[in-house]
Amino acid sequence: MEGAADLGWWGVPLALLAGAVRASTPFLFVSLGECLTEKSGRINLGLEGTLVMGAMIAYGISFLTGSPWLGVAGAAGVGLVMGALHGVICGLPRVNHIAVGIALMIFGVGLAFFLGKPLIQPSAPQLPGLALGAWSDSRAVRAALNVNALFIIGVILTFVMAWMFRSTRIGLAIRTVGDSRDAARAVGLDVKRIRLLTTAVGGAFAGVGGSFLSLYYPGSWNEGLSSGQGLMAVALVIFARWDPIKCLYASLLFGGAGALGPALQGVGISTGYYLFNATPYLLTLIVMIAASSRDRALAGAPGDLSINSSS
Amino acid sequence: MTVSNDKRAASRAILETLGVGKVFGATRALDDVTLRVAPRGIHALLGENGAGKSTLVKCLAGFHRPSSGQIMIGGRERVLRSPRDAHAAGVGMVYQHFTLAPNLTVLENLVLAVPDRNGVSARRIDWKAERARFAQQIDELPFDADLDVTVSSLSSGQKQKVEIIKQLCLGPRILILDEPTSVLTPDEADEVLGTLHEMTRDQDLAVILITHKMREVFAYADRVTVLRGGRVTGDDEIGALDADALSEMMIGEVEIAKSPERAPTAADNVLLRIENLSADNDRGVRALDDVNLTVAAGEIVGVAGVSGNGQTELAQVLAGQRRAMAGRIQVHEEVYSGTRAEISRHGMHCLPEEPLRNACVPDMSVADNLAFRHFDRPEYSLGGLFMRGAPLARRAATLMERFNVKPREPRLPMASLSGGNVQRAALARELGEDVDILVVTNPCFGLDVAAVAQIHAQLMDARNAGTAVLLISEDLDELLTLADRLVVLFEGRAVHECTREQADRRGIGQKMTGY
């Protein structure tokens, strides 16, 4: 954050922007995955576990093969498997989504810590950044505009997903399944299969989000890597009203909030560093309180999205 | 029916079931049902709740597989594994519980349900072309619908029409309607059934109409089959039958509780006074708007209206389950806000609709459920902390006896009781002790004739004993039978009020739709 110091106080908004872009990627992938799953009427709280598993696997594969992109693919694969596991278990009769999600979250985190022990020391090849700020002389600007390809992929994915929900038959089918099980059955859709698929693909997205954590920012494997980002992303989907494009905005906001502490430290304000670091958690709380109401149900929520058990 | 009749019917039937049976676990829902439906006309399927009507049509629509017997469509045996198979065979069904996705638009619902003319469904949806396609199809049908509104904003009548449009767009030869008029006003019901009646005259369309309303059977059906306990108890042209014959086929030899006399009461001591009451629904939209209402001791005030016009919210505000946004409620001329202390002091009891879901804990025992109103009274608790089992159990047994709750086994979980017994148990709790004011919502929804008669008798008894009863019901016949005064709710407003003597079916039906 030396660079921010050259610009004085101007470094704060720049660092926030840079932080928003940098730290938002895991939020973006997890929230897109959760958005997809919830649109079909299921809640997968296990994405925190998937995120951590994805981070560990990506780091491990990158370390062993030397290719960070293989690591990303591996993380997506592990996410797919963990998502499918959630999907299959929830497809059994009288199974509660929430309980399965929490179990998978703890399982994923625990398994990642167990398997990832040998990965804490070695350093793995990292994902490259795209230097979009090469035109500038200022090191701060260049650092801020050093964007990772995964972020760009995430942004493209956002718009593809929004388009899919709006204009494709599969998108319409997912929305129908999420809105009313009976309506979906009456038009001959296989509710369980669609929910299984959206949960699996949603898990894959979360896995990719995890690979960003270990292979780009912060860019190492340790047990405090995620610190609940997977859970916050679930709250973020509610904030975004189940709209992929709003998920992108909300991810940027959460990412920016996460960058507040380091940015202020960059200009020499270090009192309350840990307090500022807690901004995303505080924001989560504020979002949940603002979104709740004694008198009305959540607007935009998929009609069949329930915390109840069964399919 | 003679043999030659049988043969003639069989030769021109579009749909037949031959000895169809269906077993769920230990219960036999259908037993050797043979049904023949002609290619044109309306075929009514009449019967009490639980008679097997819904099970039978679900077999025809591919939702259930029959345990035995055959289904013939167009003279060929068909095995219907899914609703899709049924569609392919030309069977369309409009379900009792709507099967439209509520947060999607009408167009989105139609696009998913109806493949285009070539049977291909492109992966990408061309909304402009789809809109044009359905606008044209709807143009050719005698029903109308706005394609761009969200389904949840439609009234029940409009939803029903969209359901019918959806099925008709699929070009069925057989259209099944499962109690289509239970959510419609009398006028809407006449419109829908009248239009379908016309259609079955002009084209090859057979309509199977499930209903328990005798009036509709006589007005629109060409033929009627009666089911009781999963068996066919009657089957004939409509002209050959009268109402008495039909009800005997439906009910058999069940003793029906006699409706008690309406005792003359003064009805001048107002116990419940609702003033300028407004409340919002779950979506934050105004659902009750400036409603004024009084109920006096010894009268039944009926609240009529098509489902979704503020009845649910009214009952919830009175039960303390929903906050009023404006106005006030007075009970015994004191301000009332629905706290447990106030409910207990004023003897204000509420029986919401679907009590198993809204007023009971399904997994707790019947005795526990019966204790909810009084378990904290001194005679049933030690120091307000410990429940006294023996007095509570004795009380539960007495209540179950008095209100005829079967089986008389207080330790069974509430959820194991049949619908009628849950309703009676919930009513026992609310009416079991001194009750000054009773608010009931759709108390007879889904019950058989005998159960309905018992509950009506209990409500009338309560009224005669001086209870102020507010009866919120979507069944206009029930209101006309029981109420001393009627209030019509439309879009959250009390748009009409009349006494029992002034009430006429048609006029009230019109007020229910906002005329």
UniProtKB/TrEMBL annotation, chain A:
A molecular function (GO) term: transmembrane transporter activity
GO annotations of cellular component type: plasma membrane
Residue ranges the record marks as coiled coil: none
KW RNA-binding (keyword) present: no
Domain of life: Bacteria
Species whose genome carries this gene: Salinisphaera shabanensis E1L3A
TM helices/strands, residue ranges: 12-33, 45-64, 70-92, 99-120, 140-165, 194-218, 224-240, 247-267, 273-291
InterPro entries reported for this sequence: ABC_transp_permease (IPR001851)
Topology in membrane: Multi-pass membrane protein
Compartments reported by the entry: Cell inner membrane
Protein name per its UniProtKB record: ABC transporter permease protein
Keyword annotations of the record: Cell membrane, Membrane, Transmembrane, Transmembrane helix
From TrEMBL, chain B:
Keyword field contains Nucleotide-binding: yes
UniProt keyword DNA damage, yes or no: no
Protein's recorded name: ABC transporter ATP-binding protein
Native species: Salinisphaera shabanensis E1L3A
ABC transporter domain: residues covered: 15-254, 272-515
Keywords, alphabetical: ATP-binding, Hydrolase, Nucleotide-binding
PROSITE patterns: ABC_TRANSPORTER_1, ABC_TRANSPORTER_2
EC numbers: 3.6.3.17
PANTHER family tied to this protein: CARBOHYDRATE TRANSPORT ATP-BINDING PROTEIN MG119-RELATED, GUANOSINE IMPORT ATP-BINDING PROTEIN NUPO
SUPFAM superfamilies reported for this sequence: P-loop containing nucleoside triphosphate hydrolases
Molecular-function GO terms, alphabetical: ATP binding; ATP hydrolysis activity
